[in-house]
């Protein structure tokens, strides 16, 4: 397979932007004081998986004959792409129309939490999803019907259960969720939110795989 420069540029630039956005989060007053540090936020967890997919993608660019690397990359994309679809759809909808449901105004001790600069916002809530979709549609082959049938639902269910359990535990330790729309709803409604998010991620993945040429 002939070496191509533009996939390297995609993976390097996306990983750099995501890493910069994550580093910027250390400036927020909430992070160092709460249980779980950055990681009660689905945004940060999804960012890490997307970042890892870009790094593995970069390795594949230089060693395309290593089947294990390509298999790992495709597994990471199957995990990260639906998660980023959930993050992107929920975040931009709420921050545009109902910002109080997605943005915490202050820490527990009253320290204000500023709005993210647009550049940071995009690095966390847009670049990961865009990079993953571009990688999948332009550099990868679509997932086979057998792979989709065997792995897509279990993967989405496992991610949803794992995050839901982790978010609930962190909220129990901190006294709040990272997202006000979870804090303000009872457990039964939160279960519906988790399930609805999983459905959004699954449908998004199926649509992207279906339109892949």
From TrEMBL:
Topology of the protein relative to the lipid bilayer: Multi-pass membrane protein
NADP listed as a keyword: no
One Pfam family, short name: Far-17a_AIG1
Keywords: Membrane, Transmembrane, Transmembrane helix
Cell compartment(s), UniProt: Endomembrane system
InterPro entries, sorted: ADTRP_AIG1
UniProt protein name: FAR-17a/AIG1-like protein
UniProt organism field: Armillaria gallica
